[in-house]
């Protein structure tokens, strides 16, 4: 049995309609809260991939020839449709990911709609420049790249698909999107919505599959650009495959981001930021502030308040709007997170929050705060991607900055202080692509998002994303 709310008409969405090929490897999607199978699908065969590429190529040529304002209108209509279906899309996302409906109602399809609306509005504003050269002159044209490939992680499936599709399509590209096999469903909904909004068939195709499907597409000569959201090891492989064809690449990868809390910080707001910057989406967020550096003067007060707040977290049925914490995405992922919890204890970190009562099921884990974490412990070095917070303490600003930067990652960082001169000074020294001052993990579409160092390159959102989905052509005009 599958869930009628979830089982799609077919595994893939190609050339404007659902497409099935049962010769592909069968796989299933489960509701993480109970482990029940909610949908059965098949990975793409070579025939599905060929037809996705063929239809994307012809749709792209047609789409790029439209007036940009017309392209923008399609994206804005898609945003409107998404908003009217927010409840159903949120339920689907909750069933596929296990994330509480209190989150998916506001952070998933809603964020996707914001992105479609934003880039829909930008589409008609994308222009080149006029360059006077005396008698002669030159101009630039901003042109699309061609057929782009999006590969998504499982934590924000429809948000990731929209964050990649919206700027790609606004610039006149087509996109083939491969969701994570763990959360294959909501990208299919986005594909249907784009067709309803007036996109030509083939402009946004969804093909399902495991890593091999993504790898085959990333190395395909017809793909002009690859945008991956995933882990650093996958990023190395995908960037390597794309490098073979010198394809454009955007990499949104993992992190081990620091939050720096100075003695003069507003305690309540710093505690809330650490709490939700570690436990939102049950800790499965790339930019989470998983190394919380607290200055010694407020360390104890911070830990006491954090422990009180953690004890009050509401864990339970993800479809209940009062629930704050759901399960992890799968039992297999739970095993990885549980290993990190055991290891942290073995390496000498102190657990300052008792385990909370959990519902039955294999994917549940209690949020946990460890204090006394040192820079060399595994918990301070490796991405856990679960609700496991590491609190470290520091004495001086210089020390905090040096230790915050002592990581291979560079995705995000936060600074909490009432001294705004210090806040800006510290942020300027932090090696992270996205920083917050007295706030954390807010990612409005207007603000570019992305990483430094091993956390990746390229940017999503904001006008900056346009640079990564278009190319400039320079035209010299001789007037003689
Ligand atoms: P993975 O790296 O395991 O997978 C990401 C995607 O890549 C999946 O669709 C996966 O397919 C696919 N894939 C795997 N191997 C290959 C390959 N060789 N070639 C092409 N595609 C491949 O990440 P997770 O799904 O486990 O997501 C968690 C990770 O994503 C974390 O590290 C997290 O930090 C990062 N992330 C980064 C974000 C950012 O914006 N910086 C945001 C969200 C998450 P399949 O799953 O089917 O194997």
UniProtKB/TrEMBL annotation:
Tell me where on the tree of life, at the top rank, the source sits: Bacteria
Domain Aldehyde dehydrogenase span(s) in chain numbering: 25-475
Q: Does the keyword Metal-binding apply?
A: yes
Q: Which UniProt keywords apply?
A: Metal-binding, NAD, NADP, Oxidation, Oxidoreductase, Potassium
Question: Mind telling me which PROSITE patterns this protein's record contains?
Answer: ALDEHYDE_DEHYDR_CYS (PS00070), ALDEHYDE_DEHYDR_GLU (PS00687)
User: Which co-factors does it depend on?
Assistant: K(+)
Identify the residues that bind K(+) 1: 29, 96
Q: Which positions bind K(+) 2? A: 246, 453, 456
Query: Cofactor note from UniProt?
Result: Binds 2 potassium ions per subunit.
Give any single GO term for biological process.
Answer: glycine betaine biosynthetic process from choline
InterPro entries documented for this protein: Ald_DH/histidinol_DH (IPR016161), Ald_DH_C (IPR016163), Ald_DH_CS_CYS (IPR016160), Ald_DH_CS_GLU (IPR029510), Ald_DH_N (IPR016162), Aldehyde_DH_dom (IPR015590), BADH (IPR011264)
Chain residues that bind NAD(+): 152-154, 178-181, 254, 286, 383
Instruction: State which pathway it belongs to.
Output: Amine and polyamine biosynthesis; betaine biosynthesis via choline pathway; betaine from betaine aldehyde: step 1/1
* Catalysis performed (reactions): betaine aldehyde + NAD(+) + H2O = glycine betaine + NADH + 2 H(+)
* A Pfam family: Aldedh
Its recorded name reads Betaine aldehyde dehydrogenase
Please tell me the species this chain comes from. Halovulum marinum
Question: Which gene is annotated as encoding this protein in its UniProt record?
Answer: betB
